[in-house]
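Expect chain and fold; thus:
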Amino acid sequence: MLITSEFLLFFNISSSIRFDLALQLNRIEAAFEIAKKENSNLKWKQIGDLALISGKIDLAIECLEACDDLSGLLLVYTSLGLKEKLKNLAKRAEDTTKANIAFACYFTLVKGFIEKFSHL
């Protein structure tokens, strides 16, 4: 009998293996549930990246916030034109001495890039 990766997700195997299988099978929700239990920055980052690729923006934001991926949040917030989120991110970046992220947030907000390029 051939055992598929999908089948293995339902067995009592280690959460690490189940997480990797869920990612391989593009089962983002299953991976998300495992990450919630383990609260690993690496797992949050992996799910956030996969969610972005899959177009699940809200889930991506939640995961990127959970792992403090400020550069990923900068990308998402700028792309979506979320000014208030960018302001909050700038402050958060300052507080964690991520000057490059803070600068990019403030520069984007001050120069009005969001308004200029939101139609693209």
